[in-house]
Design brief:
Blueprint lengths: L2 E2 H8 L2 E3 L5 E2 L1 E2 L9 E4 L16 E5 L11 E5 L2 H12 L8 E2 L4 E2 L4 E2 L4 E2 L4 E2 L4 E2 L4 E2 L4 E2 L4 E2 L4 E2 L4 E2 L4 E2 L4 E2 L4 E4 L4 E3 L5 E3 L5 E4 L4 E2 L4 E3 L5 E4 L4 E2 L4 E2 L4 E2 L4 E2 L4 E2 L4 E2 L4 E2 L4 E2 L4 E2 L4 E2 L4 E2 L8 E3 L4 E2 H12 L1 H16 L1
Parallel strand pairs: 4-5, 5-6, 6-7, 8-11, 9-12, 10-13, 11-14, 12-15, 13-16, 14-17, 15-18, 16-19, 17-20, 18-21, 19-24, 20-25, 21-26, 24-27, 25-28, 26-29, 27-30, 28-31, 29-32, 30-33, 31-34, 32-35, 33-36, 34-37, 35-38, 37-39
Antiparallel strand pairs: 1-3, 2-7, 22-23, 39-40
Length: 340
């Protein structure tokens, strides 16, 4: 692809500062920029590279003030990060035009297939499943009985979707993820042995959800494990039976959420967080990485630690904790001096 600065400015609703006719054919990081590429400056930590990069065009904030002259062409925009994301989509290796069912698939005759659907080689769709318009299913995907997949959803290679799962529109599910596996539920019988609890529910994923690779979402015991619209889940996340994740919540890698916990909307959950079962987490809660959540938290709370407490309280406590050896030593000296 080849674009001129003026064309890119039109796409991004930006303003050209420099040569509007200069062209680019690739994207690059600002610190590694080369002639013929376009970069962006979205973090002040990288300001110095603006004056050394060889990128032909750099996207900057509309009010950015230069410390010294530059010889590159600038495109000034409201939000450089968002604007560069648009360019990433523009330059993406787009396979959205792929249509048709590969000869090496196993598709039950009862499967409903919408318009412009793609199903890659060695994928399986079992009876009564339904694929909406423009669904893309890549090789080696398993779609179980009675599964519903909404239009424009992308299922990457190696995803396994158990029966009765429902996936909304415009979703992306990355490789290795399992949707609808049994929950981790056992009862101890009279002989002291673990007896499996049968899970008869399903997983319901609403529209515009993205799920990273190798994530597991267990089906409900009864009812649905629910991932609400706009949720973004990273790689290697475990979501147990009957969990509810509210709209637009973001979950980083290696998070584990135990059964029947409800998490509100617009929450941010850092990596390696563990959340106990049967809890209620409010809206807009921010959970710092590696925290262990063992109780309910109200909306608009920031928490950290194990067990998690309010973020400010944790920081105050940590000041004392890191000074504990010194405090103990001073206390020992005080006791010795006063007993001597």
């Amino acid at each position: 692809m080849n674009f001129k600065a003026n064309q890119i400015a039109d796409i991004l609703n930006g303003k050209v500062d420099g040569d509007g006719q200069i062209s680019i054919d690739s994207l690059s990081k600002i610190e590694d920029g080369k002639k013929g590429s376009i970069s962006f400056l979205g973090n002040p930590k990288y300001n110095r590279f603006l004056y050394t990069t060889k990128s032909s065009i750099i996207i900057v904030k509309d009010d950015y003030v230069l410390e010294k002259p530059v010889y590159n062409t600038l495109i000034r925009v409201k939000d450089p990060n968002e604007s560069f994301s648009k360019l990433l989509n523009l330059f993406a290796d787009d396979s959205s035009d792929r249509i048709g069912v590969n000869d090496f698939c196993s598709i039950d005759s009862s499967v409903s297939i919408g318009k412009k659907v793609f199903i890659g080689s060695f994928s399986v769709c079992e009876k009564n499943s339904k694929l909406g318009d423009n669904v893309k299913i890549y090789p080696q995907v398993f779609v179980g009985e009675n599964v519903l997949i909404g239009e424009n959803t992308i299922i990457h290679s190696g995803v396994k979707i158990y029966k009765n799962s429902v996936i909304g529109k415009n979703c992306i599910i990355h490789s290795g993820t399992v949707i609808g596996s049994d929950g981790f539920g056992f009862n101890i019988d009279q002989d002291g042995k673990q007896k499996k609890v049968i899970h008869n529910g399903n997983v319901l994923i609403e529209d515009n959800v993205e799920i990273g690779s190798n994530t597991s979402i267990d089906k409900a015991t009864l009812g649905s494990t629910k991932i609400c619209s706009g949720v973004k889940i990273d790689n290697l996340v475990q979501i147990a039976h009957n969990v509810i994740i509210g709209p637009n919540t973001v979950i980083a890698a290696q998070v584990g959420i135990a059964g029947s916990t409800s998490i509100g909307s617009n929450c941010m959950i850092g990596g390696q967080v563990g959340i106990s079962g049967h809890l209620k987490i409010g809206d807009r809660v921010m959970i710092q990485a590696k925290s262990g959540v063992l109780r309910n938290f109200e909306s608009d709370t920031s928490i950290m630690g194990y067990p998690a407490i309010k973020y400010r309280d944790y920081n105050k406590s940590y000041v004392h904790f890191k000074n504990l050896p010194k405090i103990v030593k001073n206390l020992d000296n005080f006791i010795k001096n006063n007993n001597g």
